[in-house]
């Protein structure tokens, strides 16, 4: 488990206005509603809305990820309000230790090794081991090195493609308004011409140690907020955070054969991390518009081909559209209406190589009007058909 300080200080469910047992769909719906209302484009110059937008985005990035949500719930349950109690005499540590959600390991003398219980507790934002270092220090364990500012949150957006662009692949431009690395200080948070310096209080560790009686404690450094570095002259454009909200345009390469609803991950294109920390990822959900000619089944393409009755009876070679040009398809004589002909390798390209097939279903097109000569010929044909003994409904409907 990797509890983060924000997870203990902020109620992400409250930020999104949902219950703690809300479904994934309810969380997504609440986030989309709030994101539209609080988006910087809809609230220009409103710092409070911008801050709420960041909080809502962070809450969604945790609660929309099943693994992160589980970890968040366990962290809040285990550490909220500091609910720890001892089982030993007088409520101390001698006889045992109980912590909500923790794992107790047998120790010497039949008690529990509190150092093992919290030694792997994980990180907090801006300072590693706020709990692990605290309880590790009880047993003179060395404090961990502080984690630098955490990576930025992941972002989500969507784009709509034509059927053919999705099948063939394309490049689209997306405009995003989100926290991005400050262009003035290049994400460092320091005024141009200066650099962050190592915190002299904790010597860059991000944590400080102190003794209280027989015990040693480690806690996040208050001078650098657990980051291990200090900025003497903050960048005026980002106030030392290394991040500003701005609109940027990125080009996204859509791979060949992308399907409706598929998500594309762009590493490092999400929300910028504070003070030079890595950016999160961007996930682009693709919506594919229907096509007037083609439908898709896996990597195969399906098309209905209008043909005349004469082409089915006598046979013919007809031109059929594909994603790239046309192909000649041979209709054998006496082909039944509704038969599907397969043209191999003319479907959607596969990422591993090769392509699906083109499935051509023939459908008889009936003329809306014939001239007298054509009608007379058709009657002659009908007479010849009956004379030959052909009965199209022979056996049909028999029980």
Automatic annotation (TrEMBL):
Pfam families: DnaJ, DnaJ_C, DnaJ_CXXCXGXG
Residues reported to bind Zn(2+) 1: 182, 185, 235, 238
Gene from which the chain derives: dnaJ
Record text on subunit structure and interactions: Homodimer.
Protein name: Chaperone protein DnaJ
Protein role: Participates actively in the response to hyperosmotic and heat shock by preventing the aggregation of stress-denatured proteins and by disaggregating proteins, also in an autonomous, DnaK-independent fashion. Unfolded proteins bind initially to DnaJ; upon interaction with the DnaJ-bound protein, DnaK hydrolyzes its bound ATP, resulting in the formation of a stable complex. GrpE releases ADP from DnaK; ATP binding to DnaK triggers the release of the substrate protein, thus completing the reaction cycle.
Keyword Zinc set for record: yes
Coiled-coil stretches noted in the UniProt entry, renumbered to this chain: none
A single BP term in Gene Ontology: response to heat
Mapped zinc finger ranges (CR-type): 169-247
CXXCXGXG motif repeat segments: 182-189, 199-206, 221-228, 235-242
């Amino acid at each position: 488990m990797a509890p983060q300080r924000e997870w203990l200080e902020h109620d992400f469910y409250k930020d999104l206005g949902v219950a703690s047992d809300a479904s994934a769909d309810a969380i997504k719906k609440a986030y989309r509603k709030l994101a539209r209302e609080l988006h910087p484009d809809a609230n220009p110059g409103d710092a409070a809305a911008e801050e709420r937008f960041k909080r809502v985005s962070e809450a969604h990035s945790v609660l929309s990820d099943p693994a992160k949500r589980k970890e968040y719930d366990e962290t809040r349950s285990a550490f909220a309000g500091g609910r720890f109690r001892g089982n030993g005499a007088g409520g101390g540590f001698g006889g045992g230790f109980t912590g909500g959600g923790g794992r107790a390991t047998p120790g010497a003398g039949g008690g529990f090794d509190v150092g093992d219980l919290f030694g792997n507790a994980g990180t907090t934002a801006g300072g590693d081991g706020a709990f692990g270092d605290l309880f590790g220090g009880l047993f003179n364990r060395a404090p961990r090195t502080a984690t630098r500012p955490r990576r930025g949150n992941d972002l989500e957006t969507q784009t709509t493609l034509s059927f053919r662009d999705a099948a063939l692949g394309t490049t689209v431009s997306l405009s995003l308004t989100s926290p991005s690395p400050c262009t003035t200080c290049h994400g460092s948070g320091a005024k141009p011409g200066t650099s962050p310096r190592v915190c002299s209080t904790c010597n860059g560790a991000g944590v400080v140690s102190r003794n209280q009686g027989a015990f040693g404690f480690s806690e996040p450094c208050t001078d650098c907020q657990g980051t291990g570095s200090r900025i003497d002259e903050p960048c005026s454009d980002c106030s030392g955070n290394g991040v500003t909200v701005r609109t940027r345009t990125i080009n996204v390469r859509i791979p060949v054969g992308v399907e409706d609803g598929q998500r594309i991950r762009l590493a490092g294109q999400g929300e910028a991390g504070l003070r030079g920390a890595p950016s999160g990822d961007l996930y682009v959900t693709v919506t594919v518009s229907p096509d007037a000619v083609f439908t898709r089944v896996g990597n195969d393409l399906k098309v209905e081909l209008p043909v005349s009755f004469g082409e089915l009876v006598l046979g013919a070679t007809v031109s059929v559209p594909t994603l790239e040009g046309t192909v000649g398809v041979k209709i054998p004589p006496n082909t039944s209406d509704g038969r599907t002909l397969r043209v191999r390798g003319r479907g959607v390209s596969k990422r591993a190589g090769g392509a699906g097939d083109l499935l051509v279903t023939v459908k008889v097109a009936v003329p809306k009007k014939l001239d007298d000569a054509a009608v007379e010929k058709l009657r002659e044909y009908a007479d010849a058909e009956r004379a030959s003994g052909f009965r199209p409904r022979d056996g049909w409907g028999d029980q």
